[in-house]
Specification:
- The complex is a heterodimer of chains A (510) and B (322).
- Chain A is built from 18 helices and two strands.
- Chain A is mainly alpha-helical and 510 residues long.
- Chain A has two domains: 464 residues, no CATH class; 42 residues.
- Chain A has a two-stranded antiparallel sheet.
- Chain B has 322 residues and is of the alpha/beta class.
- Chain B folds into two domains: 159 residues, Bordetella uptake gene, domain 1 (D-Maltodextrin-Binding Protein, domain 2, 3-Layer(aba) Sandwich), CATH 3.40.190.150; 121 residues, 3-Layer(aba) Sandwich (D-Maltodextrin-Binding Protein, domain 2).
- In chain B, strands 1, 2, 3, 4, 5, 6, 7, 8, 9 and 10 form a ten-stranded mixed β-sheet that branches.
- Chain B is globular and about 55 Å long.
- The chains are: A mainly alpha (510), B alpha/beta (322).
- Chains A and B meet through helix 3, helix 12, helix 15 and helix 17 of A and helix 1, helix 2, helix 3, helix 7 and helix 8 of B.
């Protein structure tokens, strides 16, 4: 373990007051941009890149890593409080998190997200330090058909746990897959479903879709029912997590970490898929299935841990191979190159001092994030005590601002409004919106990988189950489906009488 | 009341950051804005930001702002540039990729609509295989490629019409593989292509020279050929021509301005680029990034672009992509 002394040297470097200050600035800025829908860490880093030319490599990279980790955390705040995910990796957090917030447990949801992010970030960073080379060589051994299998697994896992009606779930998923087709086909350069509108040719940004369907749809729904529905009760419980919250959160944090870290390291993994899988897993394993859909804390703890762990995973492939797996990592890569540090096989040998200072500062940054965010949780949660008309007009304002700032494209605002109306109608007719958002996020990856696999094999379909990894994933899928069918049959036998659909069904889909 | 104040403060801060992100430019007399029509961190972005920094540091111009407007292979940015007709101080960084993207994206705006300022740099493409590949020379590889092109996936980091796509097909044509038979697999840039090479998913990778400097030095990748006319310093790799393949191909990057600007403005921007070109910092930056100096200014650059345009159109036509 020659990593340990090197890490200690790294701590010595990272703990210099100046570097600590940069880490602090980084996590604060990161949290802030993570909160805003549309402004992600990637854009922040690109804006800051020229300003850091005058810095030494170590402080600059420490600043950037702080922004990255902070951004991953910050995305959860708006998801939980406003049902407006700041990043696509926070979509799953919104499902249970927002339900918790509306039941007056916003502070607990924010706390489990903050602590979960800390736990996951710390464990994953330690894993990064000790397993980077092995992890990286596994990550690049996966081929297109393996990724396709994983996306199928995500679709199946999510759709078996979501919603009461499989038909509605599948319809919503199909809607999402269709939205995901919009834009120029990467393989052939053909325009698909763009109807001659130039600005649709890049496709619809996933953040715009998520914000429209969640936040705008919700705001319209509330507006339409403002007079009929009584104001929701915000019980004022204590702002801290109680014993049962802790007991239910920690296994979810660990499972989320276990999913998030490897996915982050995969060149085509990303932060979204592990959050989907984590949510499904928690819903399957929970002892409180009745709470899912009404604010189950595991549903926040798992996905939040997963997206933070994936950020550390991303650094595995970035540092060990020089392969950026997210937009943020791509900007970090160019920052490395600016300082003549070429991430890749030689990085650890050529410039160990910078790398170890960076790794140590990630651990320090994680502590800072926790210290900063935990006391803020009850304060943020009080935002929901605003009268609803003000709260929702504020949500609409930030939704529009965020959608515009993704690409500074006015058409995106129009898309936001149209999809927001769609979100309203889906609520009206009882279609769940989550499968739609998942379809938009995963559809293009799934399609791209399928076609890539078939192209590489020159059209031979058997390539799809030609690798051991893919076969393993298909076995898991079959097991999941079998389990779902068995459960459905068993449920039918025990309660033949229980037929009349609950009237809340109309609003069940978030 | 305190809560309200906090909210207002937070709101104001949010608006400030968003405005910053939106980059509403300062309208000075001499201020120059360079639009990068694709993502932060890419080749265009690096070129623009390096150039902007040197221009500012050496006081060639007071303010040079770089911003990104992604989309449709660069044609979203092109449309915006063409739309800001007659506007002073606007530039767009572009290159061979945008030439092809105009066709594959069926863009209404073309490069012929813009005012040419300068070609800055060029960069050859390379043909690479992973270290454990059975192919040691281009000759070995060509034997298998020509035999069954469909079973021989070739990966590239650019979409149809982009430089890697063009280089792959031109190489194929030059070694006797029918371009329409090439099994070209698109990857989203150099990173994913590297992963595909290392996992053995593709047999051959086509990429810009600068992309894999370190991996080549570390012995992870082997270069079978460089597409430039002469060998590149620091790269122990033969050119295509010295291996008997009649092909010279270089990717290039340059700057264009909106249509309808007056001659004085065009001259101002051209001389700004010329001054940049003469700085020692620019020379260092080129060496650092593996770029070759390829300065060509004003209308000569315009003529060069239309030549390139014809070539690209010809090839895409042959491939049935136009």
């Amino acid at each position: 373990m020659d990593a340990l002394p090197a890490l200690l040297d790294g701590f010595a470097a990272a703990a210099q007051p100046e570097n600590l200050l940069w880490a602090l600035v980084g996590v604060m800025l990161g949290t802030f941009v993570g909160v805003l829908p549309g402004i992600g860490p990637a854009m922040t880093l690109a804006l800051l890149l020229p300003l850091t030319y005058s810095l030494d490599p170590a402080p600059a990279l420490i600043l950037f890593a702080g922004i990255y980790y902070g951004g991953m955390y910050g995305g959860s705040t708006t998801s939980i409080l406003l049902n407006a995910p700041g990043e696509s990796s926070s979509v799953m957090t919104a499902i249970e998190g927002n339900k918790m917030a509306r039941a007056g447990r916003g502070a607990q949801a924010l706390a489990t997200a903050a602590i979960g992010s800390f736990v996951a970030g710390t464990i994953a960073t330690v894993l990064l330090i000790f397993t980077a080379p092995a992890m990286a060589s596994f990550a690049v051994s996966l081929k297109a058909q393996d990724y396709f299998a994983i996306t199928l697994l995500s679709f199946v896992a999510v759709s078996t746990v979501l919603g009461s009606s499989p038909v509605r779930g599948l319809a919503a998923l199909a809607l999402g897959l269709t939205l995901g087709l919009i834009g120029i086909d990467a393989l052939t350069g053909q325009q698909r479903l763009t109807f001659g509108v130039d600005s649709l040719s890049t496709g619809i940004d996933t953040v715009v879709v998520a914000v429209a369907l969640f936040a705008v749809g919700e705001a319209l729904w509330i507006a339409a029912h403002l007079r009929q529905a009584p104001a929701e009760v915000m019980s004022s419980s204590t702002p801290w997590m109680n014993r049962s919250d802790w007991r239910r959160s920690w296994p979810a944090w660990l499972r989320g970490t276990a999913l998030g870290f490897p996915f982050g390291a995969l060149p085509a993994g990303g932060a979204e898929m592990p959050t989907f899988l984590s949510y499904s897993l928690e819903k399957k394993l929970t002892r409180h299935p009745e709470e899912f859909g009404h604010g189950a804390i595991e549903g926040v703890a798992g996905p939040e841990a997963a997206n933070n762990a994936s950020a550390a995973g991303t650094l595995v492939t970035l540092l060990a191979l020089g392969i950026p797996t997210t937009a943020t990592a791509a900007v970090m890569l160019s920052a490395f190159q600016r300082y003549d540090l070429q991430p890749g096989p030689q990085l650890f040998e050529n410039t160990p001092d910078v790398v170890w200072a960076l790794l140590a500062s990630l651990l320090i940054g994680n502590v800072m994030l926790l210290v900063l965010n935990l006391p803020l949780a009850p304060l943020w949660a009080r935002l929901l005590k605003l009268p609803r008309p003000y709260l929702y007009s504020g949500i609409l304002f930030f939704s529009i601002l965020g959608s515009f700032s993704v690409n500074q494209n006015p058409t995106d605002i129009l898309v936001l409004v149209v999809l927001g109306l769609l979100g309203f109608l889906m609520r009206r007719y009882g279609l769940p919106v989550v499968p739609t958002v998942i379809g938009v996020i995963l559809g293009p990856t799934s399609e791209g990988k399928l076609r890539q696999a078939l192209q590489v094999s020159n059209g031979d379909w058997s390539t799809l189950w030609a690798t051991g990894f893919a076969i393993t994933v298909y076995v898991v899928i079959v097991a999941l489906l079998t389990l779902a069918v068995v459960r459905a049959v068993a449920a039918k036998r025990t309660s033949l009488v229980d037929s009349a659909e609950a009237p809340e069904r109309e609003h069940a889909g978030v | 009341m305190r809560k309200f104040q906090t909210l207002v403060a937070a709101g104001a801060a949010v608006v400030a950051v968003t405005a910053l992100a939106g980059c509403s430019g300062s309208e000075g007399d001499t201020a120059v804005r360079i639009m990068v029509p694709n993502s932060p961190g890419g080749g265009y972005d690096t070129t623009a930001r390096v150039a902007a920094k040197i221009v500012e540091d050496d006081k060639i111009n007071d303010t040079v702002e770089v911003y990104n407007l992604e989309g449709a292979g660069g044609t979203t940015g092109l449309a915006k540039l063409v739309g800001s007709k007659g506007k002073d101080g606007e530039l767009m960084l572009m290159g061979l990729g945008v030439v092809g993207a105009v066709y594959t994206n069926q863009s209404d705006s073309t490069l012929a609509d813009t005012t040419p300022i300068a070609r800055l740099i060029s960069e050859p493409d390379i043909l690479v295989v992973p270290a454990d590949s059975p192919y040691k020379t281009l000759e070995d590889l060509v034997a298998d490629w020509t035999e069954s092109p469909g079973d021989f996936p070739v990966g590239g980091g650019s979409s149809p019409g982009g430089p890697d796509h063009l280089a792959a097909h031109l190489t194929a044509e030059a070694v006797g593989v029918t371009p329409t038979d090439v099994n070209y697999v698109v990857y989203d840039g150099g990173g994913p292509l590297l992963a595909a090479l290392l996992s053995g998913e593709v047999e051959l990778g086509v990429s810009g020279l600068g992309e894999y400097k370190d991996q080549i030095q570390a012995g992870q990748l082997r270069v079978l050929g460089v597409t430039s006319g002469e060998r590149v310093e620091g790269f122990d790799a033969p050119t295509l021509t010295e291996q008997g393949v009649d092909l010279e191909f270089t990717n290039w990057r340059g700057l264009v301005a909106p249509p309808g600007i007056d001659d004085a403005e065009q001259d101002r921007l051209v001389s700004m680029v010329e001054e940049l070109h003469d700085t020692p910092e620019w020379e260092d930056a080129m060496a650092e990034n593996g770029w070759t100096d390829a300065l060509l200014t004003g209308d000569e650059f315009g003529d060069y672009m239309s030549e390139q345009d014809e070539q690209v159109q010809g090839l895409l036509d042959e491939l049935g992509l136009v």
